[in-house]
Amino acid sequence: MNRIRLRVIVDIEEDVFRDIIIGRTASLEDLHRGILAAFEFGEGEMASFFQSDEDWGRGREIPLMDMGMNDAGIPFPSMRTTAVEDMVSQANDRMVYVYDFLRMWCFYVEIVGLEEGETPEYPLLAQEFGNAPDQYSKEVDLGEELSGAAPEEDDSGPLKTGDPELDAYLAGEEDEEDNGPSFTSLDDLDDLSY
Questions:
Q1: Does pLDDT of 193 surpass 90?
Q2: Residue 28, in any domain of the structure
Q3: CB distance 130 to 7 below 8 Å
Q4: Which residue, 8, 17, 34, 7, is CA-closest to 121?
Q5: Full-model pTM
Q6: Looking at the domain assignment, is residue 23 inside a domain?
Q7: Which residue range forms the structural domain that includes residue 9?
Q8: For the segment 103-157, what is each residue's pLDDT rounded down to a tens digit?
Q9: 7 lies in a domain?
């Protein structure tokens, strides 16, 4: 069993997958390029593979980029230095592949067969099902925190901060509690006698 047949399913509403045949000892970088070619995505974005369990939870991460060396001088794993069989080697082993960290394309990768035969020099597209999505069809998601966008729930009043007292102040609401004298200016402090 010198080659692996992987089913790669893109995480969209429609059923779309590609079966790719690759050598067990091929690098994850080769698989990365094979997945992009199979779905007609261009290269140039950040990507990572994650070992996965039966519920598609993300475990150990192998990034596309070389992340340098640890304190002992041992290189951290990268797609270039990690073989496919180091992540998946038995029937039903799984990985999650994430491409383009701004659009967050997520692909579910699962072994569907272990085969004998000539080891392909490059990943081979063995089967296509469904129409691949356009790489740029997803909106870039910077999140509210990064984009500075106002929350969508209530844009009629001041922004909500999460702090009830500050939110009440920004909304112009008066505090019902009497916590002592209130002052309208620093000059009012002079009139206070203790």
A1: no
A2: yes
A3: no
A4: 34
A5: 0.72
A6: yes
A7: 3-129
A8: 999 999 999 999 998 888 899 999 999 999 999 999 887 765 555 555 455 544 5
A9: yes
Give the mean pLDDT of the chain.
84
The identity of residue 135, as a single letter, is: Q
- Assign 3-class secondary structure to the chain: CCEEEEEEEECCCCCCEEEEEEECCCEHHHHHHHHHHHCCCCCCCCEEEEEECCCCCEEEEEECCCCCECCCCCECCCCCCCEHHHHCCCCCCEEEEEECCCCCEEEEEEEEEEECCCCCCCCEEEEEECCCCCCCCCCCCCHHHHHCCCCCCCCCCCCCCCCHHHHHHHCCCCCCCCCCCCCCCCHHHHCCCC
What is the SS3 assignment for 30? helix
Same domain for 93 and 50: yes
94 & 159 share domain: no
1 band by pLDDT with thresholds 50, 70 and 90: confident
Query: Domain check: are 91 and 160 in the same one?
Result: no
Element (H, E) at 170: helix 164-170
